[in-house]
Amino acid sequence: MQDLKPTVWIGKQGCTETMIDEIVTQLKKRTLIKVKWLQNTEVDPAAIAAQARARLVEVRGRTMVLAEKGKAGKTTAVSPARVTARESAKPAAARGRRPPANAVKTEPRQSRRRQTGAMARSRK
Predict the structure, then answer these.
(1) CA gap 57, 102 in Å, rounded
(2) Labelling 82: which of 11, 99, 109, 114 has CA 20 to 30 A away?
(3) Average pLDDT over all residues of the chain
(4) What is the reported pTM?
């Protein structure tokens, strides 16, 4: 959902019939659309989804993602939490995170901060 750019912006007038028509038009062209609204605008995402006959996929802050109701099974977006859960279910060797058996353990390097000013001059 993060890669999806907002295509509808709701301004200070709120969600008008024109906005609902635009949402319906865009849902016919795309499987998912992202709608954002201004801070000073009161918006009920569930009501907008109901008016547009769309499925409310996600709401975060002042952004909502809508999908067409008929396209419920065709959306290919997978939430990052699901991907993480699947990855963590795999054994460590399958994820490629286990070091080889003959790897030598080394201590992490400590960064050397560059001394400036009077402190640097006194150490020279």
Answers:
(1) 48
(2) 99
(3) 75
(4) 0.54
